[in-house]
Design goal:
The chain is globular. It is mainly β. The protein has one helix and eight strands; from the N terminus they run E-E-E-E-E-H-E-E-E. A hairpin with a 4-residue loop joins strand 1 and strand 2 (about 20).
Amino acid sequence: MSPLNNSSPLTTHVLNTGDGLPAVRMPISLHRLDPHMTLWNLITVGTTNEDGRCPGLITSDGFTPGTYKMRFETGQYWESLGQGSFYPYVEIVFTITDAEQKLHLPLLLSRYSYNTYRGS
């Protein structure tokens, strides 16, 4: 098992549950909601590694209370495998109230379903 990236307070792990493998080379973007303008501001983009993880999404300094969105480009991932899927992307919106806590946000994925939960 690979260790989580300790430098980022927010981590993710994408698993292709249909094939029982990590979802490799999936583009991910992280956004923060501007509460005054009700607009999503892009914080960073990344791609999952060979273990299905995307380390270094945000620094501790940038991880402040607020509403965030992580967008997973699932359609692009399935296309890279030569397969179709029902969901072109998955967006998970979540609220951070305590920026001192570490948050792990896994995505369990198949071509026609997905599941997520709050980890630590």
